[in-house]
Design a protein that fits this description.
By secondary structure, the protein is α/β, with parallel strands linked by helices. The chain has 2 domains: 180 residues, Rossmann fold; 114 residues, Arc Repressor Mutant, subunit A. It has 15 helices and 9 strands. It has a 7-stranded mixed sheet with strand order 3-2-1-4-5-9-8. The protein has a two-stranded parallel sheet with strand order 6-7. Helix 1 runs parallel beside helix 5, helix 1 crosses helix 6 and helix 5 packs antiparallel against helix 6. It is globular and about 70 Å long.
Amino acid sequence: MTAQRIGFLYWPSTRALTLALAEEALRVAQKVHPEVTYELLFLQAEPPVPGGWQLPGEAWNGRLEGCQKLFLLADEPPSALAPALATALKQTVRAGCLVGGLSAGVYPLAQLGLLDGYRAAVHWRWQDDFAERFPKVIATSHLFDWDRDRMTACGGLSVLDLLLAVLARDHGAELAGAVSEELVVERIREGGERQRIPLQNRLGSSHPKLTQAVLLMEANIEEPLTTDEIAQHVCVSRRQLERIFKQYLNRVPSQYYLELRLNKARQMLMQTSKSIIQIGLSCGFSSGPHFSSAYRNFFGATPREDRNQRRSSSPFELSSVPAERG
């Protein structure tokens, strides 16, 4: 049987775990099913960072031909794409290669327009930025998406989930199951499952009223509910709700709600080009001064100071968030 050639094109930000999860699934498949054969190709999209962890592979030499599948890997969004590499990727896709983006590897695909009109699983950390920069892509919060001839995984263990789905489609569910057993994977997750950690795990509590209350807060960021309204929705008294929050989160509901909105605002400040007043209003603050004062009290800097400081310290944020006027 002719070996299927699968390429991994990675950027310097790629963590060893991201590449290892994808590679190990394919290597174990060959181990448990000898008739399954792969030729794995590892290519560096850019020169490695001096002194950094050296992943296996060789420098990209200007060609990408011959791969049946090609995965792009990065764990931070690459700031730019070399013109020669962009041309080679487009030619590879036109030749019928199945392409995928793992973790921040979705960014180069989106920059080239290769995800326009496709579903793409985007890590929750980059959802706002990605949606603003690439409005033609259907960004999802799924673990992974396989939409026609495009594959994307949000990162972390979802990379393994996607590769198990590849094995199941190429060679049958029995092989994918055998690989998952060999890797001691508890269960094979479906791509459409949501990527965020279950709320009760994040809160460290299984109290149903607390979970309901926080879900209500997360669903009502732009127009915050009052503590009385939240208590009414979850069918407890205001005093009882405050006792639950104090017991499990060591803060009253209004304080937790404010922190939730401020953290959402900070994420938007760093990942979008929306104005400070737009972000404040979308996170439930009635005016610019109100937003700025609450933000400074919590983070120790005004929204403008915080955004400017992050821009100056991060090449990615500097290139992706235009300077704000006024």
